[in-house]
Design goal:
Keywords: Membrane, Transmembrane, Transmembrane helix. This is Type IV pilus modification protein PilV. The protein is of the alpha+beta class. The protein is built from 4 helices and 4 strands, in the order αααβαβββ. Helix 2 runs antiparallel to helix 4. The N and C termini lie far apart (about 120 Å). The model has no long low-confidence stretch (mean pLDDT about 80).
């Protein structure tokens, strides 16, 4: 009689381990599946973040463009010429100001026309969905405080973390870029 008696001691070694390799393979498959699903989720989030960054950089480039156009046309009529709100659906009113003499208000109309075209192109390329622009210049003693707000539709809902309410556009999932500047008026 053996000192170590168990019900499996008389069975051959192969029968004791039968099915153990299959369990190992199933566990490895589950771990691999979870890892692949995590990689797919990470890739999806990275793609969405890239899309949001592309929209934000397009909005910032457009806002900087109009800000520089306004700085170049810094006459006393900035408030009257540039106090506007428009979006990508507004009808374009063509204004030509190349190779002809234009007043500051003509230049302002030309600037806004060019910017509306750029906003429409950005919307058609998908880089700035449903864009809206609000330009609000406010005159004071030495110059003009200028605020340019670009709003567009993002892919997912976010809450704005600012204490200040920005009223520009009323689209769902709104994103905004706000540029504030000050333009000193040159002497006439």
């Amino acid at each position: 009689m053996r000192a170590n008696s168990s019900p499996f001691s008389s069975l051959p070694r192969q029968q004791v381990n039968k099915g153990f390799t299959l369990i190992e393979v199933l566990i490895a498959f589950i771990i691999l599946t979870v890892g692949l699903l995590g990689t797919v989720a990470l890739q999806t989030n990275a793609k969405q973040a890239s899309y949001d960054a592309n929209q934000r950089s397009a909005a910032l480039a457009l806002a900087n463009d109009i800000m520089e156009r306004i700085r170049a046309n810094d006459t006393a009529d900035i408030v009257a010429n540039y106090s506007k709100s428009f979006d990508y659906q507004d009808v374009l009113v063509e204004k030509k100001c190349l190779n002809i003499r234009c007043s500051s208000s003509d230049i302002a109309e030309y600037d806004v026309y060019q910017w509306q075209k750029a906003l429409r192109v950005a919307d058609n390329t998908g880089s700035l969905a449903n864009g809206t622009v609000c330009i609000s210049p406010t005159a004071d003693d030495d110059g003009v405080r200028l605020r340019v707000v670009v709003a567009w539709q993002g892919r997912q809902r976010l809450t704005e973390s600012t204490n200040e309410t920005i009223a520009c556009g009323n689209i769902t999932n709104r994103r905004t870029v706000v540029l504030d500047s000050y333009i000193f008026m040159r002497a006439a």
